[in-house]
Each structure stands twice: as C-alpha cells, then as structure tokens.
Amino acid sequence: MGTYARTPHPSRRSSDLRGGHRPIPSLVQWMVTLDCQLTCPHCLAAGDPVSAMDVEAARALVDQVADAGVEELLLTGGEPLSSPLLPAIVEQIAQRGQAWSLNTARLPTGRIRDVLQRHPPDFVAVSLDGPRRVHDAFRGRIGSFDEALESMRFFRALGSQVAAGTTVTRRNIASLTHTLRIVHDSPAQVWGLHLLVPEGRAADRPDLRLRRRELRRLVRFVEDKRNYVPLEMADELGFCGEREPLLRNLPMTCGAGRMQCVVLPDGEVVPCTTLDRTASAGNVTTRPLLDIWRDGFGALRQRRPEPRCQACDYFAACGGGCWLQTHDQPRCYRDVWERTGQPRAAAGLAVALGLLSASGCSAVQQPAPETDVAAAQDEPPADAETDGHGHGHGHGKPELLVTPAPEPAPDLGPVSVAEAREPLVVSGPRGEEVDLVVELGAIEAVILRLTLDGPSTERVDELQRIRPESHADDPGWVFVESYAAGRLPGDLSERARAVRAALGTSERSLALAALLYRSLAEPLLEGPPPQDRGSVERAEVRATIDALATTVGTWRRDILGSRLDPYLARDREHVPHRFMMLKSMPQPPPELRLAQDTLQERWGHAGQEALDGWLDRHPYADSLTLDIEGPSTPSRLGIHDIVDVGPDGDLGVTVRWEGSEPLDVSLPAGSELTWADVLRLVDEAHRGTLEQKPLESFDQGDPLRLPLRRERFETDWLADFWLF
C-alpha cells in the first residue's frame, strides 16, 4: 500500500510557505529498511539491497527531526518491524517526545513488541489487500491475513489510532465489497484506498494496474461508501476536480519536497516514497536534514510541469498531480474523474483551491447534462433544451416526459443530538471486541450492518443497544428497527406511507436515505406491474418519491455543505476531523495562492449559491442514473425521477447505464414509471441478454442487473449496490 501519516493539515497562513515550501517539513518518512519476508508483487522496496545506517546515525536522525520541530516522523519500509535498528529508534523517539507513526503488514514479536508496548506509535496503518485468500496470495505467505488483523488488534489495544490500507489492483478490485465487510468488523478505525505506484516489482507488473473503467468503478465505490465508513481515496490518483469533496476530506495538494520528504535506509533524502536516487537532495549522514531541506528539491519547487499540463484548464488547481505517479513519465487521470459539462476554469478550480465557487455567477455558463467522458457520444444533441437537472425536453409533441425531482426544502440548519451515543461492540474476525461507532453516527453503523448481513434478531438487539434513549420514538429509528425485524408492510401504499413517515426523523443520514429508497423500490420490483397500479397506489408512490427527493436534498445540503467547507469557504480556519492524514497535505505554494486570489477577485463570494451549484452538478445517487432515449430527445432518469408516458400508445425507448449497450424497451401507455419500474421492464424484455453478459469488476454497480441479482439472492452484489 502507499504510505500513511496523520500529520494535521498545515496552517493556511501564506508565511508557512516561503520559496514554495515550508521552512520545516511537517512530515518526515523514514524507510528504515528495505528488508521484508513477504513477496508482494507491488512492493516498492524490491531490487538491489541498500545498506542501512548504523545505530548511532539512526539515533542522530531522530534527534535532528525532534530538534527541527517536525510534526510527525513516519517509520516505514520494506517492513520496518524486521529492522534490527527499530528498538533503538523507538526508544530514542520516546526519549525525545517525538510524535510518530508506523506502516506495517506484520505483528510485532520479540524485543520490538516489548518496546512498542512501552512506547506505542500515535498512528499505525496495517496493509490489508482483501479477503483471506486474496490477501495471503498477494503477500505470498499463508497466514498473513490473520496476522494483519492481529496486528490491528495489538496496536488498537495500545491506544494507537489504526487504519487499514489497501492498494487496489486488478487482482483485488472485485473483492472491495468483501473487504469493506472485513474492515468494518476489524479493529481498524479508518480505511484508505491506494493506487499502484509503478516502481520496484510493480514496474514489471502492468497486469496489476487498473484499467480506466476499473478506475471509474473505484472512484464510484469511494464516493458511495464514504456515507457508511471512514474511507478516503489516497493521493496517488491526484487531483479529482469537483469530485474531490466526494473522495477526500481535504483538497489534494502534492507535498513532495514542499511539505514532506523521505529518508532512505542509507540516509539519502528524496521528495517522496521512491528509490530513485537521482531525486536525492543529499544524505543525512553527511549533511544536516534541515540544510538538505532548505537547499534541495529546487526544480520540484519551481513547479515546471509538462507542456500539456500547462495548457490544461485544471493546472492551477492540479499542479501536475501526484509527483510519485508522474516523476518518471506523465500520468493523468482526468478522463477518470471528469464529466462532460463540468465547468473547468471556475468551479473546478474553486473546489480544488478552496475558493468560493463561481457556479452561481452569471459569467459562468451552466453545465451541460453530466455524462461520463467514456460515453461522450451519448450527450444530448446541441439543440436540445435541458432543465436544471440535466433532463432533456425536446421540441414538439412531448411523447416522453421525465418529471425531475423537486428542489430541496429550505435549509433548516443542522440538527444537534447532544446525547452521546453508546458504542456498538461486535465480535471481530478473531473474536475481539470491535466498536463500530467510529467517526460515523450510530444509525449509519446499524444500517451498514443491516445492508451487509441482512435483517435479523441480532441486528434488532444491536440497534436497541446503541440507540439513544431520546430517539426511541424517532421515526427514522422506528423505521430501521422495523426493517431489521422484517416488519415493514408488504402492501405498496402502506410501504410508501411508512417511508414518508420515517422522513420525519431528526437524523440526517444519507445511509438512511438509501435504506428508505431501497425499501420503496423492492415492492416496485416484485409487486404487480406498473400499468396495473390504481390511482391510489400511483399517488402514494409519487408523493413518496417527491418527499424523498425534497428531504434528502435538504440532508445533502447540510451534510455535504459541512464537507465542502475546506473547499468553498475561506473566511475561517478549518480543522480536519479524521484519523488518517495523507502524506501530501501541504499549503498551496505562493503561485497557487496568487491564482486563488485572482480567481476570488474575478468571481467574488458565491456563498450558498456555490454549494447549491455544486450539489446540482452532483445529484444524489448519480452513479445509478439511467440514460433513456425516446423518439424526441434523450433524458436522464435518476432514482427520484418519474417517467410519465402519454395515453396514446406504448412508447418505444432505449435504456442504457453509463457506457453499456443500449437496450430497447416498451413503456406502457398511460403509466407513471419510477426508476425501479424501468429496471423491471428492461429485465423482463432482456433477461436472456443480461444473464449471458459476464459481470466484470467495473460493472459491479450496473442497476440494469438489479432484478436478476435480487432473484438469485446474490447478497454481496446487492449489499454493494444498495450502499450508495
């Protein structure tokens, strides 16, 4: 996996960056050794052996770090636990009172175990590649999976903050949902997903690197699952435009050589985790670390990117992306995260730089309907009119009308629950007690367990144990308990009313929003066909869809508005609320701040308009949206939209999801069709085709497969699907 650290986000004062770098690095990573008994195919620390510094030089380096006032010293490798120097290093760290962290894949034994019990690290990241079979095969040793979980348990018992780190490759991307379940039940408090860095053994393993469609699948996975677990996309993916707040808590800015550096086992100082000694700025055994930091990395700090980067609309925000991914050859993932129609120079830069967005200003054109870059040929024609939700309205007779979701209700301010929530303690993979209520609310923890494991008496007991007493009659909690106990009404109208009643909750939870929509969609998928519904059922369904859209829109404004603070507001300091801090979290360099000031003068403060514009461009459950093309114009059908079909006969349309092949389907005349109804009609018309099509890892979230997977009780697939 990539390296983890927990260094706090630096101050936003411009004086912290003099000459394009901080006067003192916030983070120093130390690759203590390249030795490791595992044989991971992606390992950076593979190749010719490197002599480590002696124990006196190692202690001297700790002294230099402590004397300089470095915020965090991160020990990594290879496998740092295998270094004979580690006990002396940890003892010296403790003597100097230096904050430190550890990256490992092993369980400490022998002398170092005793030392760590006396002087535990503040933060530990343990590599976890997937389920037992996947992890053990990847690490090249049977039992390494159990050892990783035992290591998490060991460090958690010492009071260290513990993260699970997964490098996502083509060998484990299909296991991400299973890995989510393992992380959820493990002692880990946070989960970080990394991309492969093409160095060491990975340089000769192109078969491990994710393809573009798999990268898009990974981005969607992180966006969706962040509503349920403390999860982040690490910085190897680089800048992600307006999708940054959906993937990370703080804007990605590469800190290699500007905010942090790496010391190799022999003392060479490089900007980031690379063994490329041509990038070295000096050696700590012959020159003080601070002198190397002050005078080194000049070319990197001048920020001279590739010509194609300079011509990019996003360059002022991106700055060329992750140095580690691009220093040997240009790599750009813009086609992975960018969507056609996103405003580039204004809103994209605003989000990345932490500016107030320009989206609400008249000088910026409104975005076209959002469509993945890979499916750009499916955009609406240039002469088609669109409403504010990206739904097409053609000229002439409206044979196909998609009724968009209503606008969110006015913001009522955050709901405060003063009562502290009890921990949710369950049995982990080795019988250990695990508290699931970490950084997320109790209701999210319960819903995650329900979605992964299904309703049961055990889930009801867990819910009643952690639910605050004051919430015993809360409509949202009452609904979740009914779902866990299997007591939801089967009648469609009654189910719709139960969902609407639950919206009266004092909780604001996107996990609850997903459960409520699922609870409405399931009877739509398995009950009488939509054309046979009576007027009462139609009215109940429409009222519930509208209520969901309005209420969930308000919840999103509150939840994501807080998440967007570091991106859209500049009039106050922001404290990051998370356990894991990635290694590349520096203040933007001076020239980036100049671009920031220029943009802010040009666009001004957009305030609430900025948030509303961002939310409008990133609608709820956008990864499930279907493209429908009728006789007049294409439309997009989200989960809170309804298709009204006229009474003059059935309507033939084509339906597709993202870049999939279009499927012809007939929409019954006079019907009001929800998103779930359209899935049902597609399945009835094309079951044979859908059965024959292999399920690729990048098609995991394909909604067109939902009826088929439900019928087959494919629980892992369904759990992943409904965790949006």
Structure characterization notes:
By secondary structure, the protein is an alpha/beta fold. It is built from 27 helices and 22 strands. A 9-stranded mixed sheet has the order 7-6-5-4-3-2-1-8-9, with helices on one face. A 4-stranded antiparallel sheet has the order 18-17-20-21, covered by helices on one side. Strands 14-19-22 form a 3-stranded antiparallel sheet. β5 (161-168), α6 and β6 (190-195) form a beta-alpha-beta unit. Mean pLDDT is 79; it is low at 8-15, 341-399, 409-439 and 570-606.
Comma- or semicolon-separated keywords:
724 residues, alpha/beta, 9-stranded mixed β-sheet, 4-stranded antiparallel β-sheet, 22 strands
Which structural class fits the helix and strand makeup? Answer: alpha/beta
Report the mean per-residue pLDDT as an integer: 79
Q: What is the strand content? A: 5-15%
Low-confidence stretches: 8-15, 341-399, 409-439, 570-606
CA-based gyration radius:
26 Å
N→C terminal distance: 25 Å
The number of helical segments is: 27
Main β-sheet, spatial strand arrangement: 7-6-5-4-3-2-1-8-9
Oligomer: single chain
Number of strands: 22
Tell me roughly what share of residues is in helical segments: 25-40%
Tertiary shape:
elongated
Major sheet summary line:
9 strands, mixed
Topology (SSEs and partners):
Layout: E1 27-31, H1 55-68, E2 72-76, H2 86-96, E3 100-104, H3 110-118, E4 123-127, H4 132-139, H5 144-157, E5 161-168, H6 176-185, E6 190-195, H7 212-225, E7 231-233, H8 244-247, E8 260-263, E9 269-270, H9 289-295, H10 298-301, H11 307-310, H12 315-318, H13 323-326, H14 334-337, E10 339-340, H15 344-353, E11 371-372, E12 385-386, E13 392-393, E14 400-403, E15 425-427, E16 433-435, H16 442-453, H17 457-466, H18 475-485, H19 492-502, H20 510-526, H21 535-563, H22 565-568, H23 590-603, H24 608-617, E17 626-629, E18 634-637, E19 642-645, E20 651-656, E21 663-667, E22 672-674, H25 675-692, H26 706-711, H27 715-722
Parallel strand pairs: 1-2, 1-8, 2-3, 3-4, 4-5, 5-6, 6-7
Antiparallel strand pairs: 8-9, 10-11, 12-13, 14-19, 15-16, 17-18, 17-20, 19-22, 20-21
Helix pairs in contact: 1-2, 2-3, 15-23, 16-17, 16-20, 17-18, 18-19, 19-20, 19-21, 20-21, 20-25
